[in-house]
Amino acid sequence: MLDTFLREQSSFTWDTFYSDRNKAIPFFVNAPDENLVQYVKQQQLPTAGRVLELGCGPGRNAIYLAKQGYQVDAVDLSSEALQWAKDRAKQQEADVNFIYRNIFDLDIENAAYDIIYDSGCMHHIPPHRRIDYVRLVNKALKPGGMFALTCFVENGVLGGADISDWEVYRQHSLRGGLGFNPDKLKMIFKDLHAVEIRKMLDMEQSSDCFGNSGLWAALFQKKE
Length: 224
Known about the structure:
- It is built from eight helices and seven strands.
- The chain is an alpha/beta fold.
- InterPro entries: Methyltransf_25, SAM-dependent_MTases_sf.
- GO terms for molecular function: methyltransferase activity.
């Protein structure tokens, strides 16, 4: 009921958003997140195994992980985004299993993944779905596995609405995506160990990595 309540107030669709590949959107670049590259290079992630990316968009992070030797399942509910991701993967000869589905409709075995990555998905999830998101992460991740995400800084340069969960429903809107702070992230993922929460590093557009200080980079580990 609440899903429908919020959806009926907006004409926005992710397929429309991704339909113009030349749009001046910062994360449309064909480069992985700088924090993800750091996690791999510094071996903060397992050096091999299965990865689940939630809300993969045009696939830049999934492709990077596949080229590092991981077995990658990448999920998105936009057919436009996934077609773009498949085109990129073909060009770069990367083997990624792209899945067209809502993340809450996934049928995942317990402890199936060594790594879960989310670059910009969670801050678009309404508060009433947050508990489902946390359950998904806890179910899918192996003991000792790593969960990493990027999400909006409250009132950051990319947005990040600084409103209460109640205001989401009062205003009938996520206002482009919810902002978070480190304390709130630790509270949401209280069942996981917080390894690191920092702002992403700003990267030049010509760089081989994407980074913007309007986003948090957070790394958590599931307890053994």
